Amino acid sequence: MKILLDTNILLLAAAGILSPKAMNYIEDDTNTLLFSTASIWEVVIKRSLGRDDFSVDPTLLYSGLLSAGYVELPVIGQHALLVSSLPLLHKDPFDRIMLAQAVYEGIPFLTTDRIVSQYPDNVILIEQ
Question: Which superfamily does CATH assign the domain made up of 2-125 to?
Answer without folding.
Answer: 5'-nuclease (3.40.50.1010)
